[in-house]
Amino acid sequence: MPVLLRPEGPAPTDLAPTRRGLAALAFGGYAAAAFSADAEPIHTDEQGLVTGMVEVPESGGALPAYVARPEAKGRYAAVIVVSEVFGLHEYIRDVCRRFAKLGYVAIAPAFFVRADPEGELAKTTDFGKIQKIVATASNAQVMGDVGATLDWLKSQPFVDKDRLAITGFCWGGAVVWMASARFPEIKAGVAWYGRLTHPPANGFLGGEQRPWPADVAGQLHAPVLGLYAGQDKGIPPSDIAAMRAALKAAGRSDEIIVYPEAQHGFHADYRETYDAKAAQDGWTRMLAHFRAHHAAPGAKRGLFG
Questions:
Q1: Residue 6 covered by a domain
Q2: pTM of full prediction above 0.70
């Protein structure tokens, strides 16, 4: 099972034996973890749902995305689900189905499809290859993809275009902060252990000259809830303190929750770092955050539940 203790993937110092033995030494993507003897990923059935791939129109072509939504007619609140570095794999699709069971339209775009048209991110055991693919997705490209996804959602008859949210994990957690500062139609965001400050210049994603969440704290349109891990080797307490300071300086009240004993990837149920207690608490807080900023008392069916 892959040891992913930091947003950019494992470093050599992470690869010490654990109680789960040599299986934990593999770099591996989603597939390598999900089919290991230790993995017990959650599976959400499709009963009462409409699920499948769609093509989101965007400049230069179409962006593939997985959608899960309630089968019943109506207009539903929508949430964009932004993946980890492993791309659009089964865990992310299942997260979408979990949302759909609660009455959301959930959509997960394939942000890395241009460099990874065959979905190798979810299959490869070469983390160097994963990093190269992920690095091709610039902030400008990703923001363009989020914008195209929002446009697609707003054009669908089953979406309440006034109730749009975003959540993301790992790499996707940073995207949540950036998109919440870019698009005023996003009403709430929840970032799961996403990078907050610029990576080292010689590190993964450090070469791109672009802003990071701490740089755009004063530009946020939507309230963002941050869910972070106290044992995350890639996001130290100093980064969280810097983000909190930036939010405070901007006069914002966005909350960052830190689970002291959790590790990076604590929501990913297919990974060794999965922490069921922290994951459930974070999920509950996320739903409450969406309710607080979207659904009025007595809201009609299909709004945030």
A1: no
A2: yes
